[in-house]
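During the second year of the project, the team shifted from modelling isolated chains to modelling whole assemblies. The rationale, set out in the original proposal, was that interfaces cannot be judged from single-chain predictions alone. As a representative example for this report, we include one of the complexes processed in the last quarter. Its constituent sequences, exactly as entered into the pipeline, are reproduced here:
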Amino acid sequence: MVTGESKNDGDALLQEQIVAYLDQELDEETQAHIERLMATDVNVREQVQQLQRVWDLLDELPRAEADDRFTTSTVELIAADIEKELQRQQDQLPQRQRRRWLAMGAALALTGWLSFTAVDWLWPHPDEQLLQNLDVIRNLDSYRQAGSVEFLQSLKDDRLFLEPEATHEP
Amino acid sequence: MAVSESTAREYELRDPDVRLMLEVRDDNAAAFEELMLRYQNRVLTVLENLVGRRDQAEDLAQEVFLRVFRARKRYVPGSKFSTWLFTIVNNVASNARRTMSRRKEVNLDTETSGPQGKQSIAQLAQAASGQMPTRVLDKAEARDMVLAALSSLNERQRMAVLLCKFEGMSYSDIAEAMGMSPKAIKSLLSRARENLREVLEPYLERGERPVRSGS
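Output from the structure prediction step:
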């Protein structure tokens, strides 16, 4: 059963297709379908003719002609806009220069930091190892007097030189 | 929307107005003047029929060309030049309508716009048909009648009709200019033309003279 709503949808679709047909916006197949309908259905043919007549009537709408005054005033408007833009750019010049200097300074600082990090990573400091072994170097004389590392290790294992509180184990 | 280099190149080769606009981008003032001369009547025609007033249409057209000039450095050809231009026309007209409806100063629609428009045409024609002999419409009458019928459409329908009728733009170009899908434009134009038919067909059929507004 065809409901009223689906009939309206069908009418709207046909209407769209007829308008698109008049605007030459249909694919070949749909165009042929509309032409078959026009040939067989007097209502469709009439609808197409009415829509076309009304569309042709729109040719009566006025076409505007711009006069010299319009052209001149538009050019003047644009010239004034360019002038305003130039003025704005000029006003912003000191501020822009300051910003440019700041940006350059920041870029330089960043470059410096990156260079330092890269050099430090590629070529480590020659005193780095000395710094790491600073405790050993400080006590080097004592270690020498002890004779050997094995002897010091045995002293440690015997807990002879531990701080008093470290010996009190639970 | 990003435009690929090949698309831009294609439009540059195909559309002489795109090439002119690219010259405008390179600060060629003569190219801008040439573009303005080519399009000012077309832009004015669409805007005048859209807003219904010459002075307002001129202001809006100037705004359009100012925007074109301001946008020159960012211009990348992603469509035909006319499609790009009428996108600006549509935006300027929509902004103007929004501004005016906020200020409630002047309605963009003419006096006979909206459902009242239809009613007044019908009333006028009815009155005329009873008082005057039936005859073929002359040009001035036809123009007034069409203007009144056009103003009975909503703004989107009117813009789509004007771009289709005056500019001969395809549905996909109108869709791009109005920021809608081609399918939506198809429906919009179908409804618009049906509305126009409802208003105008009786007078075309019977040749009745509608009374000119203000006469």
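Chain B touches chain A through 44 residues (CB under 8 Å). Chain B has ten helices and no strands.
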